[in-house]
């Protein structure tokens, strides 16, 4: 009871007015990181489509889809996504001094973990939706891959 009123007043006067602008500032790098994950998935699937259209090789297609399943764990390919979120380091430094925000590295790491999880979900969903189509007519495979990709991106 003794602490509640001063704490409420402190939050109302010193923190709440800044929350919207803080969230907007933080969401820039987070959004660009997740957009990069989406773009990476799109590029990788487009490469699979292009490769299949050139070779028309179902065995190579299976290999490429299997490689896609490992995409979330390929740090070199995921690095551009993670770098977008590293901009939070600078933004959070200012918040650290103003609002005593600690564990900045934890916030960045958790965001990067969510990005990896999103990619895992995307490639898993792609594989699940595409798997029944692998035995389809090879003339329709590229179209099917494109449809599955668009469905996953949706």
UniProtKB/TrEMBL annotation:
Organism listed in the record: Furnarius figulus
Highest taxon above the source species: Eukaryota
Protein name: NIBAN protein
Family per record: Belongs to the Niban family.
Lineage: Eukaryota, Metazoa, Chordata, Craniata, Vertebrata
Domain Niban 1/2/3, first and last residues per copy: 9-154
């Amino acid at each position: 009871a003794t602490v509640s009123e001063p704490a409420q007043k402190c939050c109302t006067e010193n923190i709440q007015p800044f929350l919207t602008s803080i969230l907007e500032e933080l969401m820039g790098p987070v959004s660009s990181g997740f957009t990069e994950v989406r773009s990476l998935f799109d590029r990788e699937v487009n490469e699979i489509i292009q490769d299949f259209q050139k070779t028309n090789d179902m065995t190579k297609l299976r290999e490429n889809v299997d490689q896609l399943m490992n995409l979330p764990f390929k740090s070199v390919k995921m690095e551009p996504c993670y770098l977008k979120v590293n901009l939070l380091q600078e933004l959070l430094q200012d918040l650290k001094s103003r609002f005593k925000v600690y564990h900045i590295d934890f916030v960045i790491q958790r965001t990067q973990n969510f990005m990896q999880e999103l990619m895992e979900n995307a490639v898993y969903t792609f594989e699940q939706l595409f798997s029944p189509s692998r035995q389809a007519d090879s003339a329709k495979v590229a179209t099917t891959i494109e449809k599955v990709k668009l469905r996953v991106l949706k």
